[in-house]
Each structure stands twice: as C-alpha cells, then as structure tokens.
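We examine the record.

___
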Amino acid sequence: MPDSTNNLLKQIALGEDSVLELKRVEFKGGQVSAPHRNGMADEMAAMANSNTGVIVLGVDDKSKAVTGIPLDKVDTVETWLRDIANDQITPPLLCRIRKLPAQTPDGDETAIVRIDIPRSLFVHQSPGGYLYRIGSSKRQMTPDALARLFQQRSQARIIRYDEQAVPQAALDDLKAPLWRRFRSPLSPKDDREFLSKLKLITCDEDGNWYPTVSGVLMATERPADFISNAYIQAVVYRGTERNAAYQLDAKDIHGPLDEQIRDACKFVERNMRVYAVKNPNRIETPQFSLSAVFEAVVNAVAHRDYSIYGSKIRLHLFADRLELFSPGAIPNTMTVDSLPERQSARNELLCSLLAKCPMNVDAIGSQRNFIMDKRGEGVPIILSESEQLAGKRPVYRLIDDAELLLTVFAAPSPHGD
C-alpha cells in the first residue's frame, strides 16, 4: 500500500478534526443515498471557506473503521461528488478527487475516496448558507465574519493574482515543452528551481508545491480545466444582430494563452470578408485590420481579470463590427479615456511571459518578434489602424464596472453592400 495511503489511514485512526472529515457511504438503487447531497455540499463548502482540508468517503466517523466503497461503484461516487461541487455550491468548487485502494476490518478489498479541498480564493455558498469549519464541526458565519472573509478573499485575488497557487493542479500538469521555451542560458539548471524563479510554481505554507495561475495559463495544454473560463469564445453572426439563429461559425479557443491569441486571430482572418476592386489594378480591402485585431486580442488575454468566476473573453464578429469583451474593470486608476495614453498591467507576470513568447512563422497580424512589446503601443495601433481602414474610431466601453467592451467597426464595402 502506498505511503500516502498508509499516512491517511493513520490520520483516520486519530479521528476528525478541523482539516479531516470522515463519511460512510450508502447506496440505494445503484445511487448514493448517504450522505445527503446538501449535507455533503455544506461540508465541502465549509472546508473551502476555512482551511485546506481532506474529506474521506468510505470511513465511519464514529468507529473510524473503513466501511469502504464497492469497487464497481467508485466511479458513481466520483460523478456524484463532481455534480455536487458544480451544482450545489456557488461559485462551483474546484477540488481534487482521488480513488484509493483499502481493506475492510475483515480483510476484504475495497476502496475509499479522498477529496482534497484547497483553501479557496472565493467565498462559497452551499444549501446551508455561508458555512465555515471549527474543529470537526461546521457553523454558520455571522455577518461580520462573512464580510471579513469576503474582504480577505477579494484582496488575495487582487494582489498578484497571477502568482497565486492553483491547488487543484499538479506539477505534472505543466508540460515541459511549454515551460522550457522560457529558459535562457542564464536560467538555473535545476527544473524546480527554474520554475520557482520564473514563478510558474509556488510553495504553500505546508511545503506543498503547486503551479501558479500563470503557470497554468502558459504551460498547461488546457488552462480551463483548472481555471474556469480561461478560454476565448469566438462567434461569427450573419448580419448585425447577436442571434443564435444567424450563427455562421463558432469556436471555443483553448490552449496556452499565446496559442489562444494566434488561434483567435486566425479565426477572424478566416471569417472576415475581403473586398476586391479593380481600379485599374486589383485592390483588396479587409473587413478589419489584422494588426488591430492582434493587438486587441493580446490586450484582452494579458489584462483580463482571471479571478472573476463565470466570465470568459468573448470575440464576436458581425457584418458591420467586431466586439471583444474582456472580463474585469480597467486596472488601477486608468479610465476608458486614458487607455491610449497610459499603460498599466493587472497581470505583470503574465505580461512578462507573453513578452518572451516568440511569434510563430505563420503568425498573422503583427511584425513583432514577440507576442507582447510592453511599450504600450497596442491601443494606439488598434485605434489608428482601425480608424484608417473603417473611417470610424473604435470605441471602448466599461460595462457595469466589470467588463471592458471594445467595438471595432468594419471597413465599408466598396460595392455598397
């Protein structure tokens, strides 16, 4: 039996405490009948609102005996837990679920399920309300305690959020080909030391190493598996209305952030119209400036607020305009009017990493050597090139102080259509 399982069984023998919860699992008609879904949601949310902890299913909390989970029902329990984390808890709770081999007191082979719940960056509400854990019990938060927790979690998200740990991700989730591209001759030879200095991984107060938000966004194959909605939703509509019935093309763009940027630009290039006029030679006029589109997507990806749950970058193309929605308010003291003149980064580490990402040979929309220049030229390029092409200046608008909308107008058709 692995050492980690042996250590867990030793902890189980000591009983429940503030970071360990034990639950017997019962079935009826092939489905989990106990614990109750709402009660399980309350336990998980209370732990996430308090400290990093572990819930073990398949152990009696009073006798501390391994009652187990039948091997053919372990997958059912895992699905049941994921449904609870997504549907019964707001915002949904990200946790690590592990199926472990065990033995009953009679020596029969069985299984237990371990749920590792990190201390969340959010405050979670479950069917029982806003709960937290004291010792081995959970309690309702008083209004003042809830207000303090909201403030603390909000500050944790705002201060260097892109350097925060992502406990539901493991170091192995970072793919070597993706992080090795940031290496230079002066980088430390030891991989862990290099990743730590680059802040792609970080160590918590218990000595556990985890990928950071930036590590997940730049060095995993699918960041949205760990950070919800860390992708671009791209849609093309026929005409000028946002109507699903008029959808011509749609794609959810995943991958490391630099790959998302390239794929989003290619999506626009593939779907936009190019007008051609012979006068006397053939002259082609694109619907949008790809240089402006590139800068707009780079800014959206680099500066969006990744701590906002449930919000993704949305790239929508219409016959007369392109709309790009980026989650989050404008950082620091900047305003919509000052965007062309000032520079401020919400995610400094992400911007630094994007500035080290080389442009691919097939990249479109920019002549730069690297994806980001960090000189603050992006917004002026978006405004000037788009206005020159369309005869109309792009518009930035802040929606409910929570989302920045950029509207880039299309070049008019020389045919009048």
The chain has a mean pLDDT of 87. The chain is about 30% helix and 25% strand. The two ends are 72 Å apart (CA to CA).
